[in-house]
Design brief:
- The complex is a heterodimer of chains A (113) and B (114).
- Chain A has 113 residues and is an all-beta fold.
- In chain A, 0% of the residues lie in helices and 53% in strands.
- Chain A has no helices and eleven strands.
- In chain A, strands 2, 4, 5, 6, 9, 10 and 11 form a seven-stranded mixed β-sheet that branches. Chain A has a four-stranded antiparallel β-sheet with strand order 1-3-8-7, with no helix packed on it.
- Chain A starts with a strand and ends with a strand.
- With 114 residues, chain B is mainly β.
- In chain B, the strands form three sheets. In chain B, strands 2, 5, 6, 10, 11 and 12 form a six-stranded mixed β-sheet that branches.
- The relative contact order of chain B is 0.35.
- The chains are: A mainly beta (113), B mainly beta (114).
- Chains A and B meet through β5, β6 and β10 of A and β6, β10 and β11 of B.
């Protein structure tokens, strides 16, 4: 079974731009969650999608949004990028949610200049 | 708000020895999940072990076991017979469906000495 894939793996943007990251879950997994990892703030939960609906949400501003498609693939969008948005963005998939084992992707390294 | 604290930024263990990583958390919930995740250098994060709060029995996965003390809100990870491949960053995490939030500790970097 193919693992969780994230594209692109690396991205460089400038302040004020917007960015869209993609996550393809393991086949059969309906839950996709997103995380931001930075040296200063550590790992922080962004949101979780299940069956195309946002089910859980962390404490991030509205500039961070996401969606999930009928095939369970998920996208995360960040608008009006700030320098502080530079981070490793991880997604994870599971069969039904946090009660099941989550499988993480390799992450997308976003650099904002 | 729920917080997760890992008081040991770095730990070191000799190969084949046992090491315990500590984690404490703060919550007013009675039903929640606790996790230990491993993030090797430049590799993907993987789940090491999971504990459901309503289960009193401590979870075990091969060489990995936890000491879950619900009243003390403590969730430590014991790694027995440490191997070089255990070297990684270990994160303790908490999730409660009631609050729809997942929290991670700051992580403990484990070094395994040959």
């Amino acid at each position: 079974k193919a693992g969780v894939t994230q594209t692109p793996r690396y991205l460089i943007k400038t302040r004020g731009q917007q960015v869209t990251l993609s996550c393809s879950p393991i086949s059969g997994h309906r839950s996709v969650s997103w995380y931001q990892q930075t040296p200063g703030q550590g790992l922080q939960f962004l949101f979780e999608y299940f069956s195309e609906t946002q089910r859980n949400k962390g404490n991030f501003p509205g500039r961070f949004s996401g969606r999930q498609f009928s095939n369970s693939r998920s996208e995360m969008n960040v608008s009006t990028l700030e320098l502080g948005d530079s981070a490793l963005y991880l997604c994870a998939s599971s069969v039904q949610g946090f009660g099941n084992e989550q499988f993480f992707g390799p992450g997308t390294r976003l650099t904002v200049l | 708000a729920q917080t997760v604290t890992q008081s040991q930024p770095e730990m070191s263990v000799q190969e084949a020895e046992t090491v315990t990583l500590s984690c404490t958390y703060d919550t007013s919930e009675s039903d929640y999940y606790l996790f230990w995740y491993k993030q090797p250098p430049s590799r993907q994060m993987i789940l090491v072990i999971r504990q459901e709060a309503y289960k009193q029995q401590n979870a075990t996965e091969n060489r990995f076991s936890v000491n879950f003390q619900k009243a003390a809100k403590s969730f430590s990870l014991k790694i027995s017979d440490s191997q070089l491949g255990d070297a990684a960053m270990y994160f303790c995490a908490y999730f409660s469906y009631n609050n729809n939030d997942m929290r991670f500790g700051a992580g403990t970097r484990l070094t395994v000495k040959p």
